[in-house]
Structures are given as C-alpha cells and as structure tokens.
Automatic annotation (TrEMBL), chain A:
It comes from the Bacteria. It comes from Arthrobacter mangrovi. SUPFAM superfamilies: Adenine nucleotide alpha hydrolases-like. Keywords: Electron transport, Transport. Gene3D superfamilies: HUPs (3.40.50.620). This is Electron transfer flavoprotein subunit beta. Heterodimer of an alpha and a beta subunit. Belongs to the ETF beta-subunit/FixA family. Residues 28-221 form the Electron transfer flavoprotein alpha/beta-subunit N-terminal domain. Its cofactor is FAD. The electron transfer flavoprotein serves as a specific electron acceptor for other dehydrogenases. It transfers the electrons to the main respiratory chain via ETF-ubiquinone oxidoreductase (ETF dehydrogenase).
UniProtKB/TrEMBL annotation, chain B:
This is Electron transfer flavoprotein subunit alpha. It comes from the Bacteria. Signal peptide: none annotated. Its cofactor is FAD. The electron transfer flavoprotein serves as a specific electron acceptor for other dehydrogenases. It transfers the electrons to the main respiratory chain via ETF-ubiquinone oxidoreductase (ETF dehydrogenase). SUPFAM superfamilies: Adenine nucleotide alpha hydrolases-like (SSF52402), DHS-like NAD/FAD-binding domain (SSF52467). Transmembrane segments: none annotated. It comes from Arthrobacter mangrovi. Heterodimer of an alpha and a beta subunit. InterPro entries: DHS-like_NAD/FAD-binding_dom, ETF_a/b_N, ETF_a/FixB, ETF_asu_C, Rossmann-like_a/b/a_fold. Belongs to the ETF alpha-subunit/FixB family. Residues 4-184 form the Electron transfer flavoprotein alpha/beta-subunit N-terminal domain.
Length: 268, 315
C-alpha cells in the first residue's frame, strides 16, 4: 500500500546572485535586488519535497508541493522557477507594506500564508538564505505554527506520522525524529537538485500562482515591514578593502618565510 | 541591577571557550547570570564564578539534552521570566540561533545574530553579505537577544572569583519537539572545534585528495582543519569541515588557505579572519586579493617546510 499523500510547503527566496558584488542601499540599508535568482540552497529543499511526493505517486495521488515566497513583484521569479522544476502550485505574499521586514515580520507573514493551505504536513527550507544568512526565519516560523523542527538534515524520510532525519556535526552524527507536522531545513548534502527540462517549463505555464496581500492574510501593516520590525540597522559601512598584503613566489624557502611572517605577527 | 542572561549549554559539564567569551562580554554589559539547561556540578559553578557569574539558573533534569531547540527555548524563556534580564546572549551556533529564533517569538523580542561586538546600549555590530559590509543593529522590541560569534573577544577571568547562587527553574511542558534517537560520536581528531579555533588551516581543490600536509601544518600550529566546498564535495574530507556559505563561518586569529582559489562562496566563510595567509600555485587566484601574506607555490612543498620550521622554533 502506498503511503498517504503529503501536503508540503517549500520556502523559496529570490536573492541577489552571490557570485557578484552585492550592495546595501544608502538610504534605508536594505539589500538592492536588481539581478535576482532562486537561492541555490532552496533547490535542495525543493528536490527533497519532489522526491517525497513522487515516492507517494506524485500530484495524481494527491501530493501537493507548494512553493511559497514573500517579496516584491520580482520575487515571483523564484516561484516560477520552482514550478518549472516541478512544484505543484505557487504562493506569493506581496504587499508594499512588507518592504523592510525583518525575520520576525517575515515569519509572521509566512505563517499566515501557510495557514491558508489547510493541513500542511511538512514545511521544508534550505539551510540558510544566501543573502541574510541569519537562519532565524525557519525557527520563528516553526514557533509561530507550533511545529517541531529539525535543522540541517542531510537525510530525510517520512513514514506514517513521523519524519526522521540525519544530522552531521563536527563531533557526532545523530538520527532525529519528529512528529508531523514539522519543519525541516536541509543541507546541500541531501540530494542532487534536478534542472527544469523543456516539459517542465511548458507545464509550469499552466500551474497557478496565488498572490496574497496583507489584507488577504488578515495582517495589519503595522506588524510587518520596516514599521513593525523588531530590529533595525542603524548604520552600515562598506568594509574597507583588505589591504593587499605581501605576495611572494616560492624559491625553495617559502615555508621558512611563512614561519618568519607568523613570528612577526606573534602568531607562533 | 543590570542582569545579562547568558545561555550556557554544556552537556559535558565543562565551561568551553565560547562560554567564557560570552561571560566576559556579559560582564562588560552588566552582571552575568548563567542559564544552564540541565543540572550543574560544583565544578561548573566554580568555573562560572571565575568569570564573574553572579547567579546560575538551571533546569533540574538532564533530559533536555535529547530534545532539540524547542525545550531549551522553553527553559530559556522561563529563565528570562525569573531573572528579568536586560539582554540575553547565546553562542552564534546553529543551535544557538535556532533557540534564539524560538525565544524571540515566545517573548516578543528582537534578535540580532552573528554579533562581533556589543555596546553598552546593546547595539550589536555584525558583518553581512560575506563581509562586504559592517552594520550596527539594534533591537527595538522586547529584550535584546544577541547571538555572539566565537573568537570576537578575549576571554578573561575576574581577579576575585564570585560564588554564584544557584536556583532551579522548572521547564513548562512545551510544544511538539524533535528528539535525538541515535547518536554516534565521530573519532576525535584531538584538534580544536573549527568554529572556535584560533588557527584554521584549510585545503581546497589544490590538495587533490590528500589532506595530510594541511593536517600536519594545523597540528604544528595547534589549529583546526577546514576545507573548501570543492574538497568536501569531492569527498576528500567530511562535510562538517567546510568553510564558506554552505558550511561554517569562522573568524580565527589566523586562517591559512592552501590550494583554494577563493571564490566568494569560500570568502563568505573566512573573510573576517584577523590574518589571512594563502598558498596557491595560480598567481591569479582571487584569494591573493585578501591575503595578508601570499605564497605562489606548491602547497606540498611549502606546508611541510613551514610545519617543520614552526615545530623547530616552538621546541
């Protein structure tokens, strides 16, 4: 007998490409997001969701994989890419009042959006966004939704009402277990994400993306955005470029000269 | 009195370097109160006293060790209610940040992660976007919760150790939690933890599967071994050794990069190191742009020679 279908939400985010220089705006210290891509680390979460869905017969058997994002109009590109890769449907929380939201405001809006999806079994995220890198949103979201949470899973399985995972750290490897519904963040070790193929790109055009405003979510503008943020950046300075140091070419004594340098820096 | 609540999670009962750093920071802001999510030994209380801890609040059973962040956040929320701190400090580890995130929602308080300095008004300084910017951030709602990076402050004992009073805090039954069902310790390398090490020697594509020269230099310097994503993806070394955007962020006193080109993915994890040394065959590697001392050469020649010279000078 096949395992029962799952209702899975994957958090996806459009982020500035980390391969290039990134800038904070001069007036409100928010990140400039002109050239954005689907955060690479989110692709692992999406792949994990698709594998769980496919193992249970996919969308035909009632499995749903929703790609959820929050952000300005361009943020929907992360959802579109997810639909091309294989997500069933998209959800885009979009409202001018959300601009400048911190993790608390973001998790509030995402929690409200997830509640519109009915009984969600699993919320999957990447290990961090490649821009903010605070890793706060998943924990805050789990707390708001009353979900158990497993972080940094490098393996993941669902059986019955239980999700099991493996987590590696410096000193040990642990197996973890949580009751559903749960929130799980996955590392880049968990799978090899697939690329969208031509069929997927065509199929994505027929998939729906629901846009939700604050009013749709029953939230007050004062609770989110820069106005509702629990934290604020009061100053931002570009880091002074690291002065170029001494570069030498090894002529047979570079190891000795390295020891000399370290001794000079009082590092021995 | 200004209470600064410091989360001291120590399943082995010892006061680790990052804990000592947190307590030293707390002393600069007010009176450190340690929150320990389990029973405390006399030895731990004495060690906390050496760092000027005024009081210790702790959970009464050790079973919080088997459950993940949820219950520890429940405990810390109870400890906050008991001690009414002006700020809460946690280590900037994966667990520390997860507990901070949960706690912030429970007590409607803002969190600043990745802090490298905290001023008297609790303005926290952090580096963002892979070290491209330094920002000052403030908590505007609730009690500031700050996760503080290791190696950002020199830990110091107090001249006259305190005798902290201890008190248990009951942990309320909480939300559903994930549990640890099995645990296998990895063979200990005898090296310091990557995230806490004062010296990190890291290898990349250029080591071509052989980390022995990197490990040997790390041992000569008493440091930890790190790796680039290329090296961990190739399976040459465990994933937990990865430094960079998809691994750990480190800020040691000394970072030696060997055979790593220094793409932004890697820079993100090490750019805030105090001193950076790079060894690479390719003179055009981006890593040389941020190196204080760069050597264009063969790491298999340079590293062993350096390790031998360092051992000679230390003996």
């Amino acid at each position: 007998m096949q395992d029962p279908a799952l209702n899975i939400v994957v958090l996806v985010k459009h982020v500035p490409d980390a391969q290039f220089d990134r800038h904070l705006s001069d007036d409100d210290y928010t990140l400039e997001r002109d050239e954005s891509i689907l955060s690479e680390l989110d692709e692992y979460a999406l792949e994990a969701a698709l594998q769980l869905s496919e193992a249970r017969g996919g969308p035909k058997a009632g499995n749903v994989v929703t790609a959820l994002t929050m952000g300005p109009a361009a943020a929907v590109n992360a959802v579109k890419k997810s639909l091309q890769i294989g997500a069933t449907q998209g959800l885009h929380v979009c409202d001018d009042a959300l601009s400048g939201s911190d993790a608390a405001g973001t998790s509030l809006a995402l929690a409200a959006a997830i509640r519109t999806l009915g009984n969600v079994d699993l919320v999957l995220t990447g290990m961090a966004s490649t821009d903010g890198e605070t890793s706060l949103v998943p924990a805050q979201l789990a707390e708001r939704l009353g979900l158990a949470q497993i972080t940094f899973a490098s393996e993941l399985a669902v059986a019955g009402n239980t999700v099991t995972a493996r987590r590696e750290s410096d000193s040990h490897s642990a197996t973890l277990e949580a009751p559903l519904p749960a929130l799980v963040s996955v590392t880049d070790q968990i799978n090899e994400p697939r690329y969208p193929n031509f069929k997927g790109i065509l199929a994505a055009k027929k998939k729906s993306i629901t846009q939700l405003s604050l009013a749709d979510l029953g939230l007050d503008a004062a609770e989110v955005g820069a106005a509702g943020a629990w934290t604020s950046v009061v100053e931002a300075k570009p880091r002074p470029a690291r002065a170029q140091g001494t570069i030498i070419t090894d002529e047979g004594d570079a190891g000795i000269r390295l020891a000399d340098f370290l001794a000079g820096q009082k590092l021995l | 009195m200004t209470n600064i609540l410091v989360f001291i999670d120590t399943p082995d009962g010892a006061l680790h370097k990052s804990h000592r750093e947190l307590l030293t920071l707390a002393r600069s802001l007010g009176e450190p109160v340690a929150a320990v999510p389990g029973p405390v030994s006399d030895g731990l209380v004495a060690a906390l006293g050496e760092y000027g801890t005024a009081a210790v609040v702790h959970a009464d059973s050790a079973d919080l060790d088997d459950v993940l962040a949820v219950r520890k956040a429940d405990f810390l929320a109870a400890a906050m209610d008991r001690t009414q701190p002006q700020a809460v400090l946690l280590p900037n580890t994966f667990d520390g940040k997860e507990i901070a995130g949960r706690l912030s929602i429970k007590r409607r308080s803002g969190v600043v992660t990745d802090a490298i300095a905290v001023a008297n008004d609790f303005t926290a300084t952090k580096s963002v976007l892979a070290g491209a910017y330094t920002v000052d951030a403030q908590v505007r709602t609730g009690t500031p919760i700050i996760t503080f990076k290791a190696n950002s402050i020199e830990a110091e004992t107090v001249p006259q150790a305190t005798s902290p009073r201890t008190e248990t805090v009951p942990v309320p039954a909480g939300a559903p939690a994930a549990r640890i069902t099995g645990r296998s310790e990895k063979a200990s390398s005898g090296r310091p933890e990557l995230s806490e090490a004062r010296v990190v020697v890291a290898g990349g594509r250029g080591v071509n599967g052989d980390f022995s020269a990197v490990e040997d230099l790390a041992d000569a310097l008493g440091g930890a071994v790190g790796a680039s994503r290329a090296a961990t993806d190739a399976g040459w070394i465990e994933h937990s050794a990865q430094v960079g955007q998809t691994g750990q962020t480190v800020s040691p006193q000394l970072y030696i990069s060997a055979g790593i080109s220094g793409a932004i993915q890697q820079k993100a994890g090490m750019q805030t190191s105090k001193v950076i040394v790079a060894v690479n065959k390719d003179p055009d590697s981006p890593v040389f742009e941020i190196a204080d001392f760069g050597i264009v050469g063969d790491l298999f020649k340079v590293l062993p020679q350096a390790a031998a010279e360092i051992r000679k000078r230390k003996s």
